[in-house]
């Protein structure tokens, strides 16, 4: 199947962040040639969104903006982080919880396909889910300027070499701070939200998978109890002795991360830490919760089985 990738929806090439640190950008749209035009939309209602205490992104001037594309909803120029709870029916709640980090190249966030829809599906399984709208690198306020800035990433020679995943954390300080604040908030309100404080995991998509990995590797109180890496980079890392169980899903035809080896998987296995890896024949990049005629659409069912295998879909006691 021929994949169409709209340049304005992609940013999985590396681009400088902060003091010369490189970080990967991400494609947060399905690889299909339809509904690919970015259309500005009013800021949607975000009931239950809680402002995190990490403050406003320093130096940011452009206002938060939203647009639709591929029949889904995206935001950019996020300067203040929020966390939106999606809580299960108390009768079904297992006590497990997940921080959900959408992707978008640290320039945009796929809030619906990789955020709200994922959280609703987890809540239906009895898992409390919390969508993290983390702060982003600034982009031009106008849509044409934003599209041009994204297209520049694809200019010839615009692909600097990728650093090791565990070397990227220094360039993601605002995003890691947002993730840590999210964990702190969920733990603080664990009793209210019927969450077991020691069963809070994190799942990320593309750039969100990078944030998930950086949060895991930087340790501290925010270290997830389990993690999901959905079409993120699979470069080798130094694995902590107490690294959490990890679920990984990637399509073999992913245009960005399918041809760079599986160092992350090897790292986890060498450290003798639990890891499950699904390499789907087709699916491209950014499939998320979009229904597609490929087996990659089944990644969420596989994740559910994995969570159940680890006892996360069962109540304690």
Give the key terms.
single chain; 317 residues; alpha/beta; Rossmann fold; 4-stranded antiparallel beta sheet; 6 helices; disordered N terminus
Short summary:
With 317 residues, the protein is of the alpha/beta class.
Strand content: 15-25%
Q: Could you tell me the number of beta strands?
A: 14
Roughly what is the average pLDDT, rounded to an integer? 86
Percent range of helical residues? 10-25%
End-to-end gap: 49 Å
Q: Over the alpha carbons, how many angstroms does the gyration radius reach?
A: 18 Å
Shape: globular
**Named CATH topology:** Rossmann fold
- CATH class group: Alpha Beta
Main beta sheet: 8 strands, mixed
N-to-C order of helices and strands: EEEEEEEEEHEHHEHEEHEH
CATH arch. level architecture: 3-Layer(aba) Sandwich
Q: Which structural class is indicated by helix and strand composition?
A: alpha/beta
Would you kindly provide a written description of the structure presented here, covering whatever features stand out?
By secondary structure, the protein is α/β, with parallel strands linked by helices. It has one domain: Alpha/Beta hydrolase fold, catalytic domain (Rossmann fold), CATH 3.40.50. The chain has helices spanning about 110-125, 145-150, 175-190, 205-215, 265-270, 300-310; strands at about 15, 20-25, 40, 50-55, 65-70, 70-75, 80-85, 95-100, 110, 130-135, 200-205, 225-230, 245-250, 275-280. The strands form 3 sheets. An 8-stranded mixed beta sheet has the order 4-7-10-8-11-12-13-14, sandwiched between helices. Strands 3-5-6-9 form a 4-stranded antiparallel beta sheet. A hairpin with a 2-residue loop joins β5 and β6. α3 (about 175-190) crosses α4. The longest helix has 16 residues, at about 175-190. The chain is globular. It starts with 13 loop residues before the first strand and ends in an 8-residue tail after the last helix. Mean pLDDT is about 85; it is low at about 1-35.
């Amino acid at each position: 199947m021929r994949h169409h990738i709209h340049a304005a929806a992609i940013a999985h090439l590396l681009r400088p962040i902060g003091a010369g640190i490189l970080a990967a950008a991400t494609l947060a749209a399905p690889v299909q040639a339809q509904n690919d035009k970015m259309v500005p939309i009013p800021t949607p209602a975000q009931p239950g969104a809680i402002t995190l205490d990490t403050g406003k992104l320093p130096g940011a001037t452009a206002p938060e903006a939203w647009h639709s594309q591929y029949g889904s909803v995206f935001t950019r120029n996020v300067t203040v982080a929020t966390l939106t709870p999606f809580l299960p029916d108390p009768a079904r709640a297992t006590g497990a919880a997940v921080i959900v980090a959408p992707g978008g190249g640290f320039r945009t966030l796929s809030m619906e396909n990789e955020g709200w829809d994922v959280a609703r599906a987890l809540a239906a399984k009895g898992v409390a889910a919390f969508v993290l709208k983390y702060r982003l690198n600034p982009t031009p306020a106008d849509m044409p300027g934003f599209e041009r800035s994204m297209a520049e990433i694809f200019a010839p020679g615009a692909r600097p070499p990728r650093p090791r995943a565990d070397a990227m954390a220094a360039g993601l300080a605002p995003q890691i701070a947002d993730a840590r604040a999210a964990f702190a908030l969920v733990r603080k309100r664990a009793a209210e939200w019927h969450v077991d404080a020691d069963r809070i995991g994190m799942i990320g998509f593309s750039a969100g998978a990078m944030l998930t990995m950086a949060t895991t590797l930087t340790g501290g109180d925010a270290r997830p109890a389990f993690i999901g890496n959905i079409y993120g980079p699979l470069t080798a890392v130094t694995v902590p002795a107490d690294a959490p169980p990890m679920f990984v899903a990637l399509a073999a035809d992913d245009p960005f991360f399918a041809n760079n080896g599986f160092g992350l998987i090897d790292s986890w296995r060498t450290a003798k830490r639990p890891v499950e890896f699904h390499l789907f024949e087709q699916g491209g990049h950014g499939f998320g919760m979009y229904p597609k005629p490929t087996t990659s659409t089944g990644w969420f069912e596989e994740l559910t089985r994995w969570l159940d295998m680890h006892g996360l879909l069962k109540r304690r006691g």
